[in-house]
Amino acid sequence: MNTQNSNFQALELYEESFRNSVGTMDETGRRKWVYPRKPKGKFTNYRDYVTYLLLAVFFTLPFVKINHNPFLLFNVIDRKFFIFGQPFYLQDFFILALGAVTSVIFVMLFTVVFGRIFCGWLCPQTIFMEGVFRKIEYWIEGDRNKQMKLDRQEWNSEKIRKRLTKWSVYAVLSVVITNFMFMYIVGYEEVFRIITEGPAENPLKFLAMICFTAVFYFVFSWLREQVCTLVCPYGRLQGVLIDKQTINVYYDFKRGENRSKWKKDEDRKAFGKGDCIDCNQCVVVCPTGIDIRNGQQLECVNCTACIDVCDEIMVKVGLPKGLIRYATEAEIENQEKFKFTGRMKATTVILGLLIGFLGFLMYDRGSMEAKFIKPAGSTFFIKNGKITNTFIYTLLNKSNEKKTLTIKVLNPKNAEINFFGNEKIILKGDQILKGNINISFPEKEIRFSKQNMTIGVFDEKGNLVDSFDTVFEGPFQLVL
Ligand code: SF4
Ligand code: SF4
């Protein structure tokens, strides 16, 4: 009995031993270079379509404008932000903050139910690595075995030619992609201007571009899967976010074990053998160098390459597909078919509501924003039976159109405004304007030392475009 127990413990320790090491490092801690086999199959095709679509969007969006505004721009240098063509100002910070909080909740809920689908299908790292740079590598150096052979061989003419070609294409691509990324920060016009004027006119900007290009090149030519396995914080979050009900790429261990090599015409069931023929193809195809048969691991980016390769093997040996598939751990344990559970439906509805809420916030900002603030240390003054307060106004035109505005006090009644000039205020599109006004009331109108007051801003058609609540100060009066 004791021997049986210790054997069982030893087996458990052996099965968990893969957790003591990283798939891309050897025992001495040195990097093990991953040469994934070129994937092919249904999921690879779908992922290719998604990749082409996302790349087309990435290379097109910087040139798309809505109402003469860039579709997306995050100009942190000049603090100019455009999302879906809508300008965002520091005054809209709460929307961006709320948007950031909503996005975090979105990502967490999404991950709880749908696992790392984002990593495999949408993450820019995977899109560029597997969809662009890896494809170029296959094209120049060939598939896994040829790459391994090339790595081992001397620096002969073939190796020099292939490596130089690959590195040159990588470098050109890094320059192009980095320039497009810059377009999302400063706009395409600015990037074209910098390129046309040359480094002598814009030394710092050129230096920034060279640095970013070098980082980009380094990430995709050398760092590669280490970004997902060691650097990315989202990957680290998986451990706490996923559970047995989360959809992920799983190996069906109930069906696959007891794994054993394939023998033609053998009745595997009769010998108690599982469907896994231990061909190791799911390991050699994995871009993060892991063995999915060890269970869910943080290194798995849900790229689906192992699903495709295992399906291919299953078809070849005449066994049902889906030994590795999208599933939940609970489904695998209970040998159930995939179900879109109530929890998934509820989470999907909540995710939809969150997106709707964000959309509502973005479109409900109005095209004008007005603020009326008292100058620091100012107070009221009384002249000719009138009490007067001074205000500094800040008017922000969030649209592209010129606006002619007037200011009126909506409450209390009988206010007089001294504009110190023209009472029509002209504001160009996307302009912030500051100025002073004096607001006066007959003494009898002001019954409190601090009287609530609402100031309205009207456009040329007389429509109220924004209002601001503030207080009007007067002398202390005893109200009976
Ligand atoms: S590809 Fe499929 S059959 Fe081959 S080792 Fe992996 S799980 Fe087993
Ligand atoms: S285990 Fe499969 S899905 Fe996960 S990264 Fe490796 S090949 Fe991709």
TrEMBL record:
Transmembrane segments: 46-64, 93-119, 167-186, 206-223, 346-363
Entry GO MF terms: 4 iron, 4 sulfur cluster binding; metal ion binding
Any one cellular-component term (Gene Ontology): plasma membrane
UniProt keyword list: 4Fe-4S, Electron transport, Iron, Iron-sulfur, Membrane, Metal-binding, Transmembrane, Transmembrane helix, Transport
Location of the 4Fe-4S ferredoxin-type domain: 267-295
Descriptive protein name: Cytochrome c oxidase accessory protein CcoG
Species this protein is from: Chryseobacterium mucoviscidosis
